[in-house]
Every structure is written in C-alpha cells, then in structure tokens.
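Team,

Forwarding the record for the chain on the shared tracking sheet. I've put the sequence and predicted structure together so nobody has to dig through attachments.
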Amino acid sequence: MFPKLLEVAGVWIQALGTFINASGQTVIVLEKDENNVEGNSLALIGNGVEAFGNSLQAIGKTNTEPENSDGILGAWLQSAGNITNSYAAYQIIRGFEIEGLFLDLFGDSIQSIGAFLESLSHLEGELIEAELASRGQLLQSFGGILEAIGVLYILKDNMAEGIQIQAFGSYAQTAGATLTAIAITKDFLSTEST
C-alpha cells in the first residue's frame, strides 16, 4: 500500500507544482517581462515541487510495477526536466537570460518526452482510469512542447508571443497533471476499498 500511496502523493504534489509554475508564467505575461523576478521565482519553486512529485511517483512505480520501465523512466525524465527548469529560472533571476532560456528549452523537451512515455505506460497498465491518466500525460507532454516553442520564440526576439505560448503550455501541464492525479487517485481508492 505504501508505494502506491507514494505515487498518489506524487501526482498531487506534481499537480501543485504545475499550478505554482503556471502562476509564475502568468506574472511574467502580465508584466510582459521574461526576466521578471517574481514570476521566475514562482517558476523555480513550482518546477522544484513538480520534480519532487515526479520522484515520488518514480519510486512508487518502481516498487509497485517494476516491469513498467516506460512509466518509471518517464517519471524520472519529468523530474530531471523540472530540475533543469528550476535551474533555468535561477539563471534568469541571476541575469543570465540566454543561458537560462537554453536550459529551459532543454528541460521542457525532457519533460515532454517523459510525460509521453508515462502516457504510453498508462495505456499498457492496469489502471481503472487508464485512458484518463494517459490523456492527462499527453496533455502534459503537449504543454511541455508548447513551453519549448515559447522559449524558441523568445530566443528569436519575439518575447510577447513567446511568453504567452509558454503560459498556455504551463496551463496545459496543470490541466494534464490534475487529470492524471484524479485518475490515479480513483484507482487507488477503488483498489483499497476491495
């Protein structure tokens, strides 16, 4: 039971982190400034929270479904991507915008790959709400891609559109993480009640 509970806690912690990150992206859009300290501080914290949640998921999956290599690898990749994004926000706060943006691009890409792998693993697994969990992860993967595209726009000196695309991607990740958390929680509750 404990490893499954770790996974449930992890998905909700990840969802909280995506919300904090989306809040930071919203501040950046409202201030129209990619270098906004408040927005980047929220992004740093949010991505750190997400990384912690992903790590709990990976540990839980390793103990409950050791054969689920796609899901385990996907959770670790998302964690690594989020750690990279946290460091990217830190670099931007320190004034190293270009370095931070390239790190952010890399982190978003890694997150997207991780979420896609987790999406596939849900379809191959035995979750009661496997389709909902898979869709949530696909939405997170799409959000990561959008955030990476937003960074590319900013790097090409199109900041106004870039930060809006990034914000939209962060909202997609929040929605996806929440859907996945609901699906995994439903599965946990139904298996614990039987």
